[in-house]
Amino acid sequence: MSSKAFQILAMLGFVFLTGWAHARVPLETRADRGEDFVPAPAAVDAASLGFDALLADYYWLQAVQVAGSQQAVDERVARHLGRLVDVVTTLNPHVGHPYRFAAVWMTHSRAQVLEANRLLERAIAFHPDDWRNHFYLGFNHFYYLGNYPAAADALEAAMDLEGSPGYLPRLVARLKSQTGDIEVAEVFLRQMLAGTDDPQERVKYETGLDEIEIEHKARFLDRARAAYRALTGRDIERVEDLVTGPHRVIEQLPDPEPEAIPAPLRRGSVWQIEDDRIVSSYLGARYEVHYSHYGGQEGALFGEETNRPEASAPEDDVREHAEGEGA
Predict the structure, then answer these.
(1) N or C: which end of the chain has fewer CB within 10 A?
(2) Backbone dihedral angles phi then psi of residue 84, each to the nearest 5 degrees
(3) How far is CA 309 from CA 27, 57, 83, 263, 300, in A?
(4) Which residue has the higher pLDDT, 301 or 194?
């Protein structure tokens, strides 16, 4: 057999083997198949045999693949991402972005937010000069857990770090005065929006800003309603009373939907009175700064001093976390 014929046969064999191998590559990811198992970080660290950075890259690629393969990161996927990033940052705590990557998604429950905070505190320990880790920690304390003092402490530590926004001192002052109103939430959300190019993250923050915009309009109507009462000695019967009749107090009602909503996506929302409050039918309720079902200034559900879930935390969350680490 000539050398040329041998080369042709070798090439055909290579093509065949490549096709055979590709045919056996599963189209579904491990996450798609429900394979959420992640070994305990300590176990991986002990078995790494000095290849810590290499294994950290392996698990980081898994995390990126899991997030990228989802149309929406639900609670199960977010928990999986948190475990993967815990392994990554245990093996190589000097990485930067993975800490904040996990924190962005781990917001579906109080236990997840606390776990995200634990990762962010590890990030701060290894990157004390990166203001972004302090900011993300402050955002979690404020926005999800309603703990203003902890949020102020986190941001205060970032104020003098290189690259930190100039408005942080004012934000800290607002938080220390316990006036974490929608203006503070808006500042946080705008900074988080500016810091990401991820489409899912951007939608999440833009939705929050839309809700704040409507709340600003609702508060404007509250003030108009108070003026109407002062003028007439009675309350309005419907929101339109503010702009009609001899006692109208404003020229027109504000748009009950976000200004940025394109015409094809508008819902025909209206202002209405529900439970004696003026609300937009677009949201169906007034905006609350915090996700109050697992946090909130009036009823913090955990001990910030320990930054661990209290005994009253939902058992499922705690159990699932323990299983992941102990597996």
Answers:
(1) N
(2) -60, -45
(3) 38, 30, 17, 45, 11
(4) 194
- DSSP readout, 93-144? TT--HHHHHHHHH--SSHHHHHHHHHHHHHHHHH-TT-HHHHHHHHHIIIII
The 10s digit of each residue's pLDDT in 246-270 is 999 999 999 999 998 888 889 999 9
Token representation of residue 156: 């205060």
How far apart (Å, rounded) are the C-alpha atoms in residues 233 and 284?
28
Cα dist. 123→100, 116, 117, 234 in Å?
9, 11, 10, 57
- Average pLDDT, integer, range 274-284: 93
pLDDT digits (tens, 9 = 90+) for 291-318: 444 544 443 434 444 344 333 333 333 3
Q: What does the pLDDT average to over 28-47? A: 74
Distance (Å, rounded) from C-alpha 142 to C-alpha 188? Answer: 9
Question: Would the CA dihedral through 23, 28, 33, 34 be positive or negative?
Answer: positive
CA distance 222 to 287: 14
| Residue at token pair 């974490």 | 180
Q: What is the DSSP string of 56-79?
A: HHHHHHHHHHHHHT-SS--HHHHH
Query: Whole-angstrom Cα distance, residue 240 to residue 272?
Result: 9
Tokens of 87: 């392994």
Query: Which CA distances in Å does 27 have to 37, 66, 70, 84, 85?
Result: 19, 13, 14, 21, 24
User: Which amino acid is present at 98?
Assistant: P
* CA-to-CA dists, residue 165 to 76, 161, 162, 289, angstroms: 34, 9, 9, 22
CA distances from 314 to 95, 139, 243, 320 (A): 31, 23, 48, 10
**CA–CA gap between residue 206 and residue 211 (Å, rounded):** 9
